[in-house]
Amino acid sequence: MIIKLKPRTTINEISHLTEYIVSLGLSLQTIEGTSHIVINILGDTSKIDAKSFYAFECVDEVVRIQKPYPKVSKTSPQKTIVTVGQANIGDGSLTIIGGPCAIEDFESFDNIAKTLVEYNLTIMRAGVFKPRTSPYSFQGLGQEALDIIKAVKDKYNLAIVSEITDKLQFELLEPYIDVFQVGARNMQNYELLKALGNINKPVLLKRGFSNTIDEWLMSAEYILAGGNKNIILCERGIRTFDNTYTRNTLDISSIPLIKKLTHLPIIVDPSHAAGRWDLIEDLSLAAVAAGADGLLIEVHQNPQTALSDGAQSLKIEKFIELVKKCRKLKQCLDSI
Amino acid sequence: MIIKLKPRTTINEISHLTEYIVSLGLSLQTIEGTSHIVINILGDTSKIDAKSFYAFECVDEVVRIQKPYPKVSKTSPQKTIVTVGQANIGDGSLTIIGGPCAIEDFESFDNIAKTLVEYNLTIMRAGVFKPRTSPYSFQGLGQEALDIIKAVKDKYNLAIVSEITDKLQFELLEPYIDVFQVGARNMQNYELLKALGNINKPVLLKRGFSNTIDEWLMSAEYILAGGNKNIILCERGIRTFDNTYTRNTLDISSIPLIKKLTHLPIIVDPSHAAGRWDLIEDLSLAAVAAGADGLLIEVHQNPQTALSDGAQSLKIEKFIELVKKCRKLKQCLDSI
Amino acid sequence: MIIKLKPRTTINEISHLTEYIVSLGLSLQTIEGTSHIVINILGDTSKIDAKSFYAFECVDEVVRIQKPYPKVSKTSPQKTIVTVGQANIGDGSLTIIGGPCAIEDFESFDNIAKTLVEYNLTIMRAGVFKPRTSPYSFQGLGQEALDIIKAVKDKYNLAIVSEITDKLQFELLEPYIDVFQVGARNMQNYELLKALGNINKPVLLKRGFSNTIDEWLMSAEYILAGGNKNIILCERGIRTFDNTYTRNTLDISSIPLIKKLTHLPIIVDPSHAAGRWDLIEDLSLAAVAAGADGLLIEVHQNPQTALSDGAQSLKIEKFIELVKKCRKLKQCLDSI
Amino acid sequence: MIIKLKPRTTINEISHLTEYIVSLGLSLQTIEGTSHIVINILGDTSKIDAKSFYAFECVDEVVRIQKPYPKVSKTSPQKTIVTVGQANIGDGSLTIIGGPCAIEDFESFDNIAKTLVEYNLTIMRAGVFKPRTSPYSFQGLGQEALDIIKAVKDKYNLAIVSEITDKLQFELLEPYIDVFQVGARNMQNYELLKALGNINKPVLLKRGFSNTIDEWLMSAEYILAGGNKNIILCERGIRTFDNTYTRNTLDISSIPLIKKLTHLPIIVDPSHAAGRWDLIEDLSLAAVAAGADGLLIEVHQNPQTALSDGAQSLKIEKFIELVKKCRKLKQCLDSI
Hints:
4 copies of one chain form a homotetramer. By secondary structure, the first copy, chain A, is of the alpha/beta class. Chain A contains 10 helices and 14 strands. Chain A has helices at 11-23, 106-118, 143-156, 170-173, 190-197, 213-226, 254-261, 270-274, 280-289, 316-335, and strands at residues 2-5, 27-32, 37-42, 59-63, 82-84, 87-89, 95-99, 123-125, 159-163, 179-182, 203-206, 231-235, 266-268, 294-298.
């Protein structure tokens, strides 16, 4: 960590500051530059709050050198592979996860499940509790959805990803689902993250729509710090100044970046990024080309009557087409 | 609600869409413009999900006319006044709330409380559970903090604002605090909002750092829809492209806007917006001049040793100065 | 265009407004909804300034139905193909343009040119005047660069793309270059756009780093309105809240969106989006997969000594690798 | 400047890098920390391009310690005072500048001028050339506007601020106007900035709507580097994710920040920030309370028929009210 001091800082102020640094168990080096004095802090600063130094009036700027997420950081070329049922996410293969935003009834859910199996897809998304912007919107079927999950899961031997929106839902969901999804709005719900750190089941951690990559990895650090290593990161678009035509902006660069910064796998959810079905295929192909370990796609039997996210759900036929194209593309990329 | 159709939409597609609209209990009017067909939906659409129409391939754009937050909307000139202890927030007066980011020990908390009372301030902020970006940072004292609150509250007859970060903390906090604060990161934690809709105690609802004003008011609608009318909105800065010098950008325009859009009172938290103590006074004066009903300010006895938010906490002397200046300014504004 | 009126608008106010609308040569229809009165304006509103209606106090919201860029809008499935030397941009093929940020000397420029020709690339980028954030940075070689361009261009029969930063440079540049590039910072330099509307040479119009897609297309409309149809759009990343690891965020969705909204071709500049060489290959592959008509890549013989943009320039060997991979990918995509 | 190296950097790579640093006339110090090697560059780095170091593959991060705008930086408590006619901007007083977006005809311009004089306002804004998003919108009266300026200026002894959108307009505008305004879209039009650096007349430099404070000050450095010290900075709102209710977000914090970073005065333009007349008064009061040296306000005799910016223009009566209130507020603030 490097601390730049303000001009005209007194010797007295410097000694206050250095005493404080030493009291944290760190050592330091003071360098007088042309225009500023700079303090280099030596030692493990990964768990130190860089902002705390600004409380000293003489501090002009604090620059972090060590990343604040030691367990998430990539320190060797080895990648983490997260096993979900028959799929190994992060092993170089492409895992496509499909399913409805929310479970609405047995028949349509069963129908999508059948399609997945037909195309050798082994993980299904399935909303039970839905966080909705409006209190008047459909909030998910709850227990009824879980019964449907049970029936379909057993019938087709599918692994199920479902969103958990509150720590209290944990016991209810646990027997039915294989991957706990943390949604964008809950990426910094630390009570939830701590709870998921204490289990072993995989966690699919979506990036908050306005969170930096560093904040996203800090949230993953919460889960890893608790002992759970089975984390799948999921990019789903960020909020920018331009939302005229898409709900969010898919941050395609996050894919290669995440691979440089961490050993964790990354998948992409183009459905929530675009917020409209007619861009999903192009964005999926782009994500695969950029190196994503998988895709998370909303599929609905009849999007026009969907109780949520109809605008961004693919019809089953279009989803199948997407699966075929992405697989061919992956094959091609592997041979390049 | 107005729906613009794509060019070359067929009559068949239009009848599918209009049937669906009618099935929602709404009526409509179709208008053929120079370049597009437009459908005007008539009836109460405040609880309809505008996005759902995009699932129809012929739909080009959906425009909401009615706001989706009927209970929060301002329909008469009457304002909601939220009473917290001796203060009436929203009645035209200025309410300044001060206190530390988190309670760290009895002595320093007692000391700040004493200062508040000396200056006739009747509400104190007091962190018990702290949501922190890093799992390695101080997370609040929990029960120990509550005991300190109890002692200080009784001694000085202060009302206490404290953040709730999970539904499960409700029973623990309830006996000790007077206002439940929902932090920026939890503004869309709907399970928490629903729980707070079922009580009568005031809720201080902070704007998420990347949430639009409409989303903020939708979260307030969740609480109002549950039956709790005692909501205080709190602007605390939004995330923008420029964070070189401030943590967030204080959205000063939100103050007059909120007054036009809703009957609820609005206060401003310049401490979290700026993230640095040396801008707090100027931003506080600006907020008061723009019409804020109150201020929420972080104060610490010794910011350099603060376990959290030291960089943005004011020393007690500087806080007193700010209180004096803001009060003089308010007096002046009332006379203009 | 649709105008939503405020509650409690008087009949007098409505007639003022409708008179004004009629005075613009438009007709209208007034609809009384449950909560609001709405006015539908009929007629060609593509050239009307929607914001002007807000000057009427009774106006609550104005919604544009017709796009304000009639000439740029896609009204038929036919695409514009822009011919640059031997390349046809927009005809379904992939055009890769490479070259240094700025021309620094004959030898290195000649060297890159030779490589391009070897790999059948026929368009080269070549900076003559460089807009730089700092007045103390290298500003381009000017006339000296033009002499180098002349020599290299004739030797290898290459077409040259170069940035114009001021109308006054036009006569100087015109004899030497084949495509006028309008940089991100000049996307709304309307005097420059008007000048480029009066010529026939192709214009490569970069998206401003903080401009919406609609604003970008409005700038293209300036050029088309002047009579020049040879416009190549270029996505180069937008400014978002997260710039920790990349200079800008490549807006990958803009590629399929532009294809829906306009008949003009779109290419992608991953070098400026990322601002770092080590992401360029992944972003290029993603852009090709998403359907881009071409790529614009910064290449330098020795990036470490580059006078500008060294951080984001590819070495020649890495550029060749990228060209090979993108071509294989394109071939694969064409066969899917 | 501080350079953090990647893990596993070789000695060879380090010596390449250090040789390069030395070749720039700088010295350095290498520090081995717990996890990384860090290089401190010593010497004047204010004119060095920090990004250039990223071209070295071993470089992980470059951190600037010295600001890149040496002439604009505040190195002593002394402020620059810019004299415009009878006003001294930056001397602690409040300068309010009013006038129409664009000059439309003599009579209405004369009328506003008369009002300004009546209220002892000595500077008037007056648009001659208007940069407009649409090529079909009113682009300003040009020479005709200049004749009107001449007549009104002489009659009332007013100083005139007008926007220059292209270097070529310089000779035309020069005899008529007292302050050259650089608009938000031209803040990085470096050819224009260089031209304005060569004169002595004051320049009103608006912040680009998506430019950081550092970029804004870099543009001011261009003008100062040329020798012109008469620069007035103008905050006019930045683009954020929320533009539902305002065109831009007024960055109120920029006022106290600019005062810390530079010796130049700062005024605020709430009209362009809000984009709507009904917020102007509240934002003006906030700007004055936050310490602005002045205000720039759009005023129109009849906003409903304005050829540009009618939505955000104040009627004359409302403008007078604003002037009175802001002056009372300023008096009050001076006494606090």
